[in-house]
Design a protein that fits this description.
The complex is a heterodimer of chains A (230) and B (122). Chain A has 230 residues and is an all-alpha fold. Helix content of chain A is 76%, strand content 0%. Helices cover 60% and strands 0% of the residues of chain B. Classes of the chains: A mainly alpha (230), B mainly alpha (122).
């Protein structure tokens, strides 16, 4: 593979013995890359447990108040949930392609894929905030902010919406953080910080982004679908 | 170069499979399968998660150390969910012991402290 950052033969010689992005305590770029991925995965394991507590709580209270949770689930608009799932899967694809572009030294494709990922992530949040949360507020479904439901099981439905807003809210917070990370990556990529030898920030940010996608892959059926739509 | 460049068709194929599974899980929710609805939704979500982890997150091409960390994470999540749900599910299997569910009894009279009696000396 050609090294992108080799302006002079001397720099090429120096880069061959010790690339500037290789920290001294690593044996080589492969080991440095794997250490980065491993560290990110350890962080993601803590994130699994972080969201796992909410999933466990949701499972317990759904078990205890099943009719209310099923009724609450049917109050959500499945069209927006499904559309947002597709949008987020698309953003995962562009993120994976961003990593591939970095691996192949395609800087313009890398920046394009990162910006597409940001746009799709912003589209997800836009649908979430403007079409879902604001409508929930108008329908008096936000606990603590004038919740009222005329039918039966109102307390259990309020509990369902507590879980709904905490889970989707925590997920949305992760996406906002992800968008900030992407913005930094675009800036670094535009300054030529990445090439096929060094793209660990792209790879580990991609792991984070895909993790957010996986959380939504479980939130979508658990919140929108398992109440039954028939 | 560290890492492993996957061919484009793998990424596109995984993307299309994820979209198809999303359509499938949404469609299944409109059919009454009884308890199988929840099982189907979770199974499809699990397959989608596997596709993302294995290909988008490159777990399939990662070192054994990374794979062990990933599996450890899911193992701890399984412990969290299974022990919590085992507790909730099994609480009603046996009735609470009688004294716990009996109405509260009046507090027993305080026992006056007796001075220690010296044993009779022979």
């Amino acid at each position: 593979m050609a090294d992108a950052a080799t302006p002079t033969p001397h720099a090429a010689e120096h880069a061959a013995e010790h690339p500037s992005y290789l920290a001294h305590h690593f044996a080589g770029i492969d080991q440095q890359f794997e250490a980065g991925s491993l560290g990110m995965w350890v962080f993601l394991v803590t994130e699994i447990m972080f969201f796992g507590g909410l999933f466990a709580g949701y499972a317990v209270y759904r078990h205890l108040y099943l009719p209310g949770f099923e009724a609450g689930s049917r109050l959500l608009d499945v069209r927006f949930g499904a559309a947002n799932t597709a949008v987020l899967i698309g953003s995962s694809l562009t993120m994976a392609l961003a990593v591939r572009a970095a691996q192949m030294n395609r800087r313009k494709a890398l920046i394009l894929c990162l910006i597409l990922t940001m746009l799709l992530g912003a589209a997800f949040l836009g649908i979430k905030f403007t079409y879902e949360w604001s409508h929930d507020y108008e329908d008096h479904l936000v606990p603590g902010m004038g919740f009222s439901y005329p039918g039966p099981n109102a307390p259990a439905i309020q509990l369902f919406f507590c879980f709904y807003f905490f889970m989707t809210g925590l997920h949305a917070l992760h996406m906002v953080i992800g968008l900030g990370i992407m913005a930094v990556l675009v800036w670094m990529a535009a300054r030529g910080k990445f090439d096929d030898g060094y793209y660990s920030p792209i790879e580990v940010s991609g792991l984070y982004w895909h993790f957010i996608d996986i959380v939504w892959i479980f939130l979508f059926p658990l919140l929108y679908l398992v109440g039954g739509r028939y | 170069m560290p890492g492993h460049v996957l061919p484009l068709r793998i990424y596109i194929g995984v993307f299309l499979a994820l979209l198809a599974l999303t359509a499938l899980t949404t469609g299944v929710a409109f059919i009454d399968l009884g308890p199988l609805n929840t099982a189907a939704a979770l199974a499809i979500a699990g397959v989608k998660m596997l596709l993302v982890v294995l290909f988008f997150m490159h777990a399939r091409y990662s070192s054994s150390l990374v794979k062990i960390v990933i599996l450890a994470g899911f193992f701890w999540l399984a412990l969290l969910l299974s022990f919590t749900l085992t507790d909730v599910e099994s609480r009603h299997w046996t009735p609470a012991p009688a004294p716990w569910s009996a109405p509260p009894q009046p507090a027993p009279k305080p026992v006056a402290l007796q001075p220690p009696t010296r044993p009779a000396t022979p």
